[in-house]
Amino acid sequence: MTREAVIAAAVRTAVGRRNGGLAGVHPADLSGAVLNALAERAGIDPAVVDDVIWGCVSQVGDQSSNIGRYAVLAAGWPESIPGTTVNRACGSSQQALDFAVQAVLSEQQDVVVAGGVEVMSRVPLGSARASGMPYGPRVLARYEDFSFNQGISAERIAQKWGFTRERLDGYAALSHERAAAAQDSGAFDEQIVSVSGVAADEGVRRGTSVATLARLKPSFQEDGVIHAGNASQISDGAAALLITTPERARELDLIPLVRYRAGAVVGSDPVLMLTGPIPATEKVLRKAGVALSEVGVFEVNEAFAPVPLAWLAETGADPELLNPLGGAIALGHPLGASGAVLMTRMIHHMRAHGIRYGLQTMCEGGGTANATLVELAE
């Protein structure tokens, strides 16, 4: 019998705004809070966990020295439980999920926690590069001294696909509208653990419109179309997923939420950088033997508005199924946590609406992307 992996619990903090309600919480403590919420809501003794695989992008300062291990200790879990930290840029905690599934499917481990954290208020974006240039002269020479600036890449994507600023701002306004509607409906309530009194995502700006966004100046090019309002927000947050087998779930009295069907990771043009979700989607569907038309919800991370719009143009997916609860433009993008945050949102949405298949994909710095397909558990 082929071994399977299921996600049996999915919990996240609310996503805090930069210098907002979570800014005073150390990343290890924020991680510990979400780990304890995961164990409590699943009803398990943390001692059954074989490993914790934790995503984090800026692994310096408060997030240095293997934050995954300190997350375990901050949670007060047994010292015997190990922890490790993964960095695949914005897809770090989605990659943590893939690694956890691989450990379970290979029979090396039976119960693994995957997730991630980023407190960008305390460890700003780019902190890890502050004292050096990670690309090296050969990489720079290969790509004609391109700065590997994601904002410039987003501008190039907008130009290549012919997206006007009005189109991008319209998408950004829709992200806020959908996120506000999701909050008002209580769609996020069950999945969020309150930390420091923050029980709701702080980034949603109600009333955002193309007209209000038109006042913002371009961020990367004087005549550009990318600005703070149609890009993901700098945020704080953490999320965790519990991965095991159906058999072990029964032994632990767990109810599987979704079955992991397939995962894929691809490399793509590092200058356009953010187009990887397009081939990653094709690859993961091919691996799973599932048609695009069978998928009922897509979570495509809104790093910048051109990213999901280019993905939509190339895949031909139903736009009504794309980021139905809003995305990172409205809800924020706490880098290392975002993969697990998106998966948590998607799983709960699938459960609430009886959606069989959900697909999540993330663009990543350096030109890579993860894609994951999950199926609603019976």
Structural commentary:
- By secondary structure, the protein is of the alpha/beta class.
- About 35% of the residues lie in helices and about 20% in strands.
- The chain is built from 12 helices and 11 strands.
- The chain has helices spanning about 25-40, 65-75, 90-105, 135-140, 150-160, 165-185, 210-215, 245-250, 275-290, 305-315, 330, 335-355, and strands spanning about 5-15, 15, 50-55, 85, 110-120, 190-195, 235-245, 260-265, 295-300, 355-365, 370-375.
- Strands 1, 2, 3, 4, 5, 6, 7, 8, 9, 10 and 11 form an 11-stranded mixed sheet that branches.
- β3 (about 50-55), α2 and β4 form a beta-alpha-beta unit.
- α1 crosses α2 and α5 (about 150-160) crosses α10.
- It starts with 5 loop residues before the first strand and ends with a strand.
- Belongs to the thiolase-like superfamily. Thiolase family.
- It is an enzyme of class 2 (transferase).
List the helices and strands and how they pair.
Blueprint: E1 6-13, E2 16-17, H1 27-42, E3 51-55, H2 67-74, E4 83-86, H3 92-105, E5 112-119, H4 136-142, H5 150-161, H6 165-185, E6 192-193, H7 210-213, E7 235-244, H8 246-251, E8 258-267, H9 277-288, E9 297-300, H10 306-315, H11 328-331, H12 335-353, E10 357-364, E11 368-376
Helix pairs in contact: 1-2, 3-12, 5-10, 9-10
